[in-house]
From TrEMBL:
Residues 97-122 are annotated as: Disordered. This is Similar to Saccharomyces cerevisiae YDR288W NSE3 Essential subunit of the Mms21-Smc5-Smc6 complex. It comes from Maudiozyma saulgeensis. Residues 31-293 form the MAGE domain. It holds the Pfam family MAGE.
Length: 322
């Protein structure tokens, strides 16, 4: 009888363990879907608190006892890697560039910065590479698929072809929906607006980077105006945003950090308007690292970046990737 009881208890225990593992597997899949949806609709950066709150809801709905977050984190990363080629990487709570007060380019960098020319001999991207793992307070979803130049060039050629269909005699006609043969909802929202937004974002970030990650608002609008981007408050063609709205958009997405210092106001006769400085945000640090910057320069300028030029690039970007 004792042997039968032991066997029965063992079988029930085994069934119970299998049931728990099945529920954990379901929760893992649900959390993976949530992370992918959040990345698509809001931001690729998500806080630990938001993940834990979502997990609590899933545990309750699946009637499952919570397990250590690190277990779920590892299982989610396994699904992301094997199925989608992504990685959920633990990152710092906030970029160091978000701390301190703004100072103009004639002075020192913002607090916590340091000498922009003093970059260690190791690759600059090393600072952005290590993951804090499940212990991090924030996480970012990164694409880890290998870069296939022929495939990416093919996609770019197709996109450029669709975009060119929205240009007629040097005039943008993408907002003329009466031309149904060209301006389908897919071609307008999925190609021209997205492509223009990506291009202007890339331009904005490169200006910041090659200003040693420290540029005044008054300076960057001069550069942008030279590229034909309206800086007078009117909407930027195609993307339908003013420059201020565009800056708010990429700041919210954490591609940039906007540092502001208001005038003290001690002198009522002062005409000071305050200082606004831009730096790259932590999302740029992980999604557009130095290796990506180098590839972009090689493709645009038709050059090969050697060690000497690489060192010049490192000096030019200042402490952006520290």
């Amino acid at each position: 009888m004792n042997e039968e009881a032991d066997y029965s208890d063992s079988r029930e225990s085994s069934n119970g363990t299998a049931a728990v593992e099945s529920k954990i597997a379901i929760i893992t899949i649900r959390l993976t879907r949530y992370i992918l949806a959040h990345s698509e609709s809001q931001n690729t950066i998500i806080s630990r608190d938001k993940l834990l709150k979502t997990l609590r809801d899933f545990y309750k709905e699946e009637n499952c006892r919570p397990v250590v977050f690190a277990v779920i984190f590892d299982q989610v990363n396994q699904v992301l890697s094997e199925t989608y080629g992504y990685e959920l990487r633990g990152i710092e709570a906030k970029s160091k560039t978000a701390k301190g007060k703004a100072q103009d380019n004639s002075g020192s960098m913002t607090q916590g910065g340091g000498d922009p020319s003093s970059i260690s001999g190791t690759t600059v991207t090393d600072a952005a590479t290590p993951s804090l793992g499940a212990k991090a307070t924030h996480f970012i979803l990164l694409n880890k698929l290998a870069y296939l130049s022929h495939f990416e060039n093919f996609k770019l050629d197709q996109t450029i072809g669709l975009y060119n269909d929205t240009i007629d005699q040097d005039e943008y006609i993408g907002d003329d929906m009466s031309r149904s043969n060209v301006n389908t909802l897919e071609s307008r929202l999925g190609v021209d607006q997205e492509m223009a937004l990506q291009g202007i974002t890339c331009l904005f970030l490169c200006i910041i980077l090659f200003s040693k990650n420290n540029i005044l608002h008054q300076e960057i609008i001069v550069y942008l105006s030279k590229f034909g981007i309206p800086v007078d408050g009117t909407e930027i063609p195609i993307i339908g945003m003013s420059l201020d709205d565009f800056i708010k958009h990429i700041e919210k997405k954490e591609y940039i950090v906007k540092l502001e210092e208001k005038p003290t106001g001690n002198d009522n006769s002062s005409n000071m308007t305050g200082i606004t400085i831009y730096r790259i945000g932590r999302r740029t640090k992980y999604e557009f690292d130095v290796s990506s910057l180098v590839k972009m320069l090689e493709q645009i300028m038709g050059i090969t970046v050697d060690n000497t030029l690489l060192e010049d690039i490192k000096k030019s970007v200042g402490n952006a990737y520290d």
